């Protein structure tokens, strides 16, 4: 075989491999769910009044600061290789945060894997450092999760995130204490808890993209394939209920992310 033929064969192999990879990348991007509010409870583990309270809070934060907080629950992050891969891909795909300013934060829970992550946009990495994101998870989110109350943990996490954004913007966090729907009694022990009190903020204050490559990494460990019965059904299929934008959600703004934040198993 001549040198020219060998070169042609090499480029043909490269082209074939590239075309083979492009389809799964495209499918994974297409299978990412679409947001229907600041809060997207795809796993259906949040109480409706907590969803509404978090929606109201996120709308108030956006109105006062321009920053956007997104909460997402899923049964599993598969077919992505890790929750880190999924959360960054989702944050980039949705464009959480103001475009140009990149002021978005994503709090995402994978129920089956018992993992949670805070993904922080470029523009808020000073306000919510990796250490602060870890503290939010350790102090406001994980204790509720370990007690079996995912709904309360997600809501408390959103309040703690809002507190740090308020601190960065020089805003009194009391301005974010928006109205909340009354509690129902049939949800069990967590049902009597009201909106997270202001001392949570004070406690925190006193203690003083490569999107295609991420999608490619997400294909490294998948126990199930793409298509009907995997990512689309486990996440997108849950999109029929559990949302309550109340007209305040007008879509995300196109913010960018660089991998800042924190991750925990519980």
- The helix tally amounts to 8
Share in helix:
40-55%
User: What's the total count of β strands?
Assistant: 5
Termini separation: 58 Å
Report the order of strands and helices. HEHEHEEHHHHHE
- Strand order, sheet with most strands: 1-2-3-4-5
**Largest sheet, if any?**
5 strands, mixed
Low-confidence stretches: 11-30, 179-247
**Portion in beta strands:** 5-15%
Provide mean pLDDT, rounded: 73
Q: What coarse outline follows from CA principal-axis ratios?
A: globular
- Secondary-structure-based class equals alpha/beta
| Global Rg | 20 Å
Could you provide a short overview of the structure?
Helix content is 44%, strand content 12%.
Itemize the secondary structure elements and their pairings.
Layout: H1 3-31, E1 39-41, H2 48-65, E2 68-74, H3 83-94, E3 104-110, E4 115-121, H4 130-146, H5 150-169, H6 199-206, H7 211-218, H8 231-234, E5 257-265
Parallel strand pairs: 1-2, 2-3
Antiparallel strand pairs: 3-4, 4-5
Describe this protein with a few key phrases.
single chain; 266 residues; five-stranded mixed beta sheet; 8 helices; 44% helix
């Amino acid at each position: 075989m001549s040198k020219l033929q060998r070169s042609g064969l090499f480029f043909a192999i490269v082209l074939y491999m590239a075309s083979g990879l492009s389809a799964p990348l495209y499918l994974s991007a297409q299978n990412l769910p679409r947001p229907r509010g600041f809060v997207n409870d795809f796993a259906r583990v949040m109480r409706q009044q907590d969803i509404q309270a978090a929606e109201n809070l996120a709308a108030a934060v956006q109105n006062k600061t321009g920053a956007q907080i997104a909460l997402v629950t899923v049964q599993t992050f598969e077919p992505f290789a890790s929750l880190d891969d999924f959360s960054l891909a989702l944050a980039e795909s949705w464009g959480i945060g103001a475009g140009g300013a990149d002021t978005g934060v994503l709090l995402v829970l994978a129920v089956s894997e018992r993992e949670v992550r805070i993904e922080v946009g470029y523009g808020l990495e000073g306000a919510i450092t990796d250490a602060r994101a870890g503290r939010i998870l350790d102090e406001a989110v994980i204790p509720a999760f370990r007690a079996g109350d995912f709904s309360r943990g997600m809501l408390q996490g959103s309040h703690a995130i809002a507190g740090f954004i308020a601190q960065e913007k020089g805003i009194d966090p009391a301005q974010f204490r928006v109205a909340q729907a009354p509690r129902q009694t049939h949800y069990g022990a967590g049902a009597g808890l009201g909106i997270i009190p202001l001392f949570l903020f004070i406690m925190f204050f006193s203690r003083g993209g490569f999107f295609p490559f991420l999608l490619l990494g997400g294909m490294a460990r998948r126990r199930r394939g793409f298509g009907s019965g995997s990512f689309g059904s486990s996440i997108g299929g849950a999109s029929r209920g559990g949302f309550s934008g109340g007209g305040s959600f007008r879509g995300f703004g196109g913010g960018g992310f660089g991998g800042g934040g924190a991750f925990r198993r519980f």
